[in-house]
Amino acid sequence: MASSNKLKAGGEFPAIEATLLDGSTVTLGKPQGDASWQAVFVYRGKHCPLCTRYLNALEGFKQAFSEAGVEILAVSADSKPQLETHLTQLNISFPIAYGLSEAQMKTLGLYISLPRSEQETDHKFAEPGLFVVNEHGKLHVVDISNNPFVRPELGALANGLNWTRDPNNNYPIRGTSDD
Cβ distance 111 to 151 under 8 Å? Predict the structure, then answer.
């Protein structure tokens, strides 16, 4: 049985870079805009119709995430040509990166799958994952799945992050007890 490296809530988010379409690199978990937090959505790739629907739905919550001070970034193991093709099916304005390596997927503790056929895709890919990184570089929210059918409901996630970010609620990082 293969060992698994799951990230700990409250722990440092690893320094992982991916590439944007313009060729620039982006560091996962480091907001580029006005937000102080970042939600990193790992998706399976262009071959996954559920990912396409989820990313398009996420666009509809971009403003709610922004109001909560949380920037959105999506990333997959797809190649640049695969992302370029996928963008024809996406109607999004948030950054999307490509080129996540198998080593990076393992560092993030993601479940990794083999393609069912060459028609599906030509590489191993990560199953869905969500990492919300706070202003201190700490993992505030982690949600990973071993299949495309289980992902956070976006409205509840946006509302929860808004509530969590409200200083009046003094809401700590959950799931940090090792007892």
Answer: no
Is 142:152 a contact under the CB 8 Å cutoff? no
Residue located via tokens 């590489």? 123
Reduced to 3 states (helix: H, G, I; strand: E, B; else coil), residue 94 is coil
Domains contained in the chain, CATH given = 18-25+33-164 (3.40.30.10)
The one-letter amino acid code at 14 reads: P
Phi-psi region of 177 (alpha: psi -120 to 50; beta: other; left: phi over 0): beta
Closest CA to 145 of 158, 163, 160, 131: 131
How far apart, in whole angstroms, are the C-alpha atoms of residue 132 and residue 36? 11
Can you tell me the distance from the alpha carbon of 80 to that of 145, in angstroms, rounded to the nearest whole number? 24
Per residue in 90-149, pLDDT (tens digit) is 999 999 999 999 999 999 999 888 777 676 677 788 999 999 999 999 999 999 999 889
Nearest one of 138, 115, 142 to 129, comparing CA atoms: 142
* CA–CA separation, 59 and 44 (whole Å): 17
pTM above 0.90, yes or no: yes
Residue 31 to residue 71: CA distance in whole angstroms: 6
